[in-house]
Structures are given as C-alpha cells and as structure tokens.
Amino acid sequence: MQQVFGVLLGLLLLPLVILLRGLTFIIRMLEGKLFSDGSIDKKVTYEFVKADMQYFSQEIDSHRCLKCGVEAQGLSWYHFRSSDASWRHLAGREGFYSKCPKCNATVNSIVTVMN
Ligand SMILES: [Zn+2]
Questions:
Q1: Residue 95: in which H helix or E strand, if any?
Q2: CA 64 to ligand 1 center in whole angstroms
Q3: pLDDT confidence of residue 114
Q4: Under 8 Å between Cβ of 107 and 98
Q5: Residue 108 reports pLDDT greater than 60
Q6: Which residues, including other chains, have CB under 8 Å from residue 68's CB and lie 6 or more apart?
Q7: How far is ligand 1, taken at its centre, from the CA of residue 19, in Å?
Q8: What is the Å distance from ligand 1's center to 79 Cα?
Q9: CB 83 within 8 A of CB 37
C-alpha cells in the first residue's frame, strides 16, 4: 500500500516540479537572463553602461570602431554574463561589449566581474 502511495505522490509532484522549472525560466527571462544556462546577452543603452561603470566611464568614451570611426555613443552596447556552470567552475565573466552597427564588428569588451 505504501508503494502505491509513493508512486501516486511521485506522479503528483512531477507536474509541480515541471511547472516550477517553467516559472523559474520565465522569471529569468524577465530579469534579462535570456538563456536557460543562466547566461545573459542583453542590449543596453550607452547611458546605462556609463552609469554602471561610474569611475571608468571616461574609458568607455575612448572606444570607437577602428574600421569606420563610429564613436562610443553611436555603438550598440550589450551586457553579457557567462553561464551559471562557468561561475561554478570559477571561470565566470560579466561585463559589457560594444558592436559597430555599420560594420557589425565587435569593437571592444570590458569585464566588470569575474571569479
Ligand atoms: Zn564600424
């Protein structure tokens, strides 16, 4: 009888676990963690990067596309974070990178957090 009860409990808990995993994924998407492995690759504004970098904001203005010369304000900026697994293995990286919208080339990247 206990085995039957255990199987029934398992069958009831399985959909609940699946539902919770789905909710966790949706919450991560809303937080900007767009990928299920916990990594982030989210477009942000130049002003957001300037505000986040604070004391190093002048360094951001020195970034410009080497091919066409577009300056920092005209570049597309992205916030990146490596996967949860990389952080568990002490190889996590987080920061910003910029791409030239004309050349579609990565101009530069800045690591702000690492472990
Ligand atoms: Zn360019």
A1: strand 93-99
A2: 8
A3: 96
A4: yes
A5: yes
A6: 100, 102, 103
A7: 45
A8: 19
A9: yes
What spatial distance separates the first Cα and last Cα of the chain, rounded to whole Å? 51
Q: What span, in angstroms and rounded, lies between the C-alpha atoms of 95 and 1?
A: 56
Contacts of 101 (CB under 8 A, 6+ apart): 70, 74, 75, 76
- Contact assessment for residue 96 and residue 77, using Cβ atoms and an 8 Å cutoff: yes
User: Can you give the pLDDT at residue 9?
Assistant: 75
Instruction: Quick: pLDDT tens for 46-81.
Output: 999 999 988 888 888 888 999 999 999 999 999 999
Q: Could you tell me the two tokens for 62?
A: 């020195």
Burial 41-69 (b: 16+ CB within 10 A, else e): eeeeebeebbebbeeeeeebeebbbeeee
